[in-house]
Amino acid sequence: EVQLVESGGGLVQPGGSLRLSCAASGFTLRTTGLTWLRQAPGKGFEWVSNINSDGTTDYSDSVQGRFTVSRDNAKNTLYLQMNRLKAEDTGMYYCQRGSTRGQGTRVTVSS
Fold first, then answer.
1. Which residues of 26-104 form beta strands (DSSP E)?
2. Which of 13, 45, 63, 106 has its CA 20 to 30 Å from the CA of residue 37?
3. pLDDT tens across 72-93, in order?
4. Which among 23, 20, 15, 13 has a CA at the least distance from the CA of 105?
5. What value does the CA radius of gyration of the chain take, rounded to a whole number of Å?
6. 59 vs 36: CA distance, rounded Å
7. Which residues in 15-53 are b (16+ Cβ under 10 Å) and which e?
């Protein structure tokens, strides 16, 4: 069974950093592309970043230069390093592979 479990969210001040994790099971993470999505309160899902099977990465304009997606193949875990966080980064963050999405982890950026 394919499962994705996110963690690492929390409350952080503007300008701060967080690292989100997405532990994958039921498949080998390095052989597939994965996506980070987020959902701000009362809004729809927003694409944040991809890491493709070949290791190449893509970012939305809103996070380019501040967020970095990576993976640890040995741990079968995906990461999202988020720096210089802004209030508008607040929301639930999800990792997704195909039609499978985790339960999300909450990020709140506030002073």
1. 34-39, 45-51, 57-59, 67-72, 77-82, 91-97, 100-101
2. 13
3. 999 999 999 999 999 999 999 9
4. 20
5. 13
6. 9
7. eeebebbbbbeebebbeebbbbbbeeeeeeeeebbbbee
Q: Is residue 76 a contact partner of residue 24, using CB atoms and an 8 Å limit?
A: yes
Q: What is the pLDDT of residue 99?
A: 93
First-to-last CA distance in the chain?
Answer: 40
Each residue's pLDDT tens digit, 21-57: 999 999 998 889 999 999 999 999 999 999 999 999 9
Beta bridge partners of 68: 81
Q: How many residues does this entry show for the chain?
A: 111
Question: How many Å apart are CA 94 and CA 22, to the nearest integer?
Answer: 8
